[in-house]
Write a structure and sequence with these properties.
The protein is α/β, with parallel strands linked by helices. It folds into two domains: 214 residues, Spore Coat Polysaccharide Biosynthesis Protein SpsA, Chain A (Alpha-Beta Complex), CATH 3.90.550; 105 residues, no CATH class. Strands 1, 2, 3, 4, 5, 6, 7, 8 and 9 form a nine-stranded mixed beta sheet that branches. The chain is globular, with a radius of gyration of 21 Å. The chain starts with 20 loop residues before the first helix and ends in a 10-residue tail after the last helix.
Length: 346
């Protein structure tokens, strides 16, 4: 997979341009957030020309997010704290609010509150969906705003550089065809991570397609500067692998196999080797070193400087343990009959 050199991007570069009224009226925008602060202000600024078609859904923010949204002119929905928050629940609530407002639209753009939308994306994505009636979801390039701020941010930017064309999932930001959204009942609200994957699996089974366009879509501000933040994010991914995998066993199959092999089976073999034969433990250690070296070479080929490539290789190897912890959290909660609650990293 080719990765473009990271670059710092300013909000001014993504200032909204003139958008044809007919296109603007064909698309609603659902913005979700929780304590995003200045990031939400930037997101609202990027869609100010679509304010009358936009709903902001707040999931229990304790900062001034709700006030900022109201001042921007968008419709605001504050979710009740009596039900666990999930991004899926917030997106469904935003969609319901748009429908209740009586706004007629054929497409809806979902976007997270820490992202700003590229000025050309709404037109590009709606035109594509108009020309391809069998496609339900159009997504483009999501970039990290500050990829050089930390290795964690840079890994986010790398992760989002997905192949063009037919895709299995879209990520949190995407333009969605309303008829397709309604045909599968929207997002499943109890899925706390990878809810877009779960949504796209159901779309695929219903005969719809998901497409990744060669176009700029959103600019994301991960703001990850600490190891603990990265760990929690990787833990959340593991929870998604387990929960969506339980709902759709064929999905995330490779991720779950790697998670169990590198996060549980090999460590167990290494421990047994201490009692059976030390060469077994040494062999497992060499496997981890080989995996890390292979990942490091991969990042080097994709333009990472040597030091960052090594750090990225180490983190990618370590992520299997984070993933496993998240998966075990899901299975323990399920066994105890507890509701799944969000895993926040910032």
């Amino acid at each position: 997979m080719f990765i473009q050199p990271p670059m710092e991007i300013t909000i001014d570069q993504l200032a909204p341009q003139n958008v044809p009224a007919t296109i603007a009226n064909d698309a609603g925008i659902i913005l979700i957030g929780r304590n995003e602060g200045a990031r939400l202000e930037a997101s609202l600024a990027s869609i100010r020309r679509f304010a009358t078609n936009t709903v902001y859904v707040d999931s229990g923010s304790t900062d001034e997010s709700v006030e900022h949204a109201r001042q921007s002119g968008v419709k605001v929905v504050e979710l009740s704290m009596e039900v666990p928050f999930t991004a899926a629940r917030a997106r469904n609530a935003g969609y319901a609010a748009l429908k209740a407002a009586g706004i007629g639209f054929d497409f809806v753009q979902f976007v997270d509150g820490d992202c700003v939308i590229d000025p050309d994306w709404i037109v590009t994505s709606t035109n594509f969906l108009l020309a391809h009636p069998d496609i339900a979801v159009a997504c483009g390039r999501r970039r990290e705003k500050f990829p050089l701020a930390s290795i964690y941010n840079r890994l986010c930017d790398w992760e989002w550089n997905t192949p063009l064309g037919k895709a299995a999932a879209s990520g949190g930001d995407a333009m969605v065809r309303v008829s397709a959204f309604e045909s599968v009942g929207g997002f499943r609200e109890d899925v706390i991570a990878a809810e877009d994957d779960e949504f796209c699996v159901r779309l695929g089974r219903a005969g719809w397609g998901v497409w990744r366009l060669d176009a700029e879509m959103t600019l994301h501000d991960a703001n990850m500067t600490r190891f603990g933040q990265w760990w929690r994010r990787a833990e959340r991914a593991g929870h998604g692998f387990a929960q969506v995998g339980a709902l759709h066993p064929a999905h995330f199959l490779a991720q779950r196999r790697r998670m169990w092999l590198w996060g549980a089976i090999l460590p167990l073999v290494a421990v047994l080797g201490l009692f059976l034969h030390p060469w077994i433990t040494l062999g497992v250690a060499l496997l981890y070193l080989f995996s890390c070296a292979r990942s490091t070479l991969r990042f080097l080929r994709q333009g990472f400087p040597p030091r960052e490539a090594l750090l990225a290789g180490l983190l990618l190897t370590l992520s299997k343990f984070c993933n496993l912890k998240g998966a075990l959290t899901y299975w323990v909660r399920r066994a105890r009959g507890r509701a799944n609650t969000i895993i926040e990293y910032k």
